[in-house]
Amino acid sequence: MHDDRQAHGDAVRIERAGDIAIVTLNRPTRMNAVNGALRNALIAALRTLNDDAAVRALVLTGAGERAFCAGQDLSEAAEVSWQNLVPWLERQRAMYQAVRDLDKPCVAAVRGVAAGAGFQIALCADFRLTTPDSRWGQPEVKAGLASIVGSYLMTLHVGHTHNVQMSLSGELVSGQRAYEMGLVSSLHADAELMPASLARARALAALPPTAVRLSKQRLRAMTQPGFDEACVAGIRAQLECYADGEPQRVMAQFLAQRGTQKNQESK
C-alpha cells in the first residue's frame, strides 16, 4: 500500500492497495467537515482516480474514530452571504457530482457521524458499509437551511415516510436504524469495517470493467435529471433562507458557543 497524499494536499489522503484506491477525508480534528480545501481536493482526487486505468474500485472513508464526515464546516458556511451563495452551492454540487461521475465502484466505509454533506456524499456512493452505532442524518433544518438535495438523494434509497421524518426533524439515526431503513448496505463490527469494505471493493473490482462502467452510466442517467432539478431547487431555497437570515443567526450562535467552550477548556 502506498500513499499519494502529495498529489491532492492534506485534506484528502489517497492510498493504493493493489487495484483499490482508498480515499480518506482527512480533517479528523474537525470531524472531516467539508471546507474549500477538502472539497477541492476530493473533486480532484476522484477525477484523477476515475481516469486511472490501474484503479478498479474505490473505498471512501474518513480519518479518525469520530466521523466519516460531520457535514459542512460551519466556520466556512457562516462567512457565506447571499451574494456568493450560488457559486458556493455550485461547488458543493460539483463535489457530489464527482462521486456520482465515478465509472468505477465506490464503497463508503462509514465510522462515526455521516451528517449533512457527509450523509449526502455517502448516499452518492454505490455501497455504504457501517457500524451499528454510527450516526446518520440530514440536520440542515436545525441550521436554518432547507433540506433539498439531501431529501432528493434519500428518495433513491428510502420511502417517503422515512424521508419526511429525517428531513423535517433533522435528527440523526443509528447505523442499525439506517440499515433497517435501507440507507445502509451492511453492518459490521468496528474492527471489521475496513476489512469488509476492502473485501467488497475487491469483489467489485474483479467484475468485467466495461459492464460495470456501462451499468454505472445507466444508473447515473436514470437519476441525473432529478439530481439536477434538486440542485437548482436547493439554490432557490437556500437563497430564501439566507435572505431571511436564519442560517447566519444559527451558525453565529453555534460558533460563539464553540469559542466559549474552547476558552473554558484552555483554562
TrEMBL record:
EC number: 4.2.1.150
Record-level Gene Ontology MF annotations: 3-hydroxyacyl-CoA dehydratase activity
Broadest EC class assigned to this enzyme: lyase
Gene3D superfamilies: 2-enoyl-CoA Hydratase, Chain A, domain 1
InterPro entries cross-referenced by the UniProt entry: ClpP/crotonase-like_dom_sf, Enoyl-CoA_hyd/isom_CS, Enoyl-CoA_hydra/iso
Keywords: Lyase
Top-rank lineage group of the source organism: Bacteria
Family: Belongs to the enoyl-CoA hydratase/isomerase family.
Protein's recorded name: Short-chain-enoyl-CoA hydratase
Natural source organism: Cupriavidus respiraculi
Gene name, Swiss-Prot/TrEMBL: crt_1
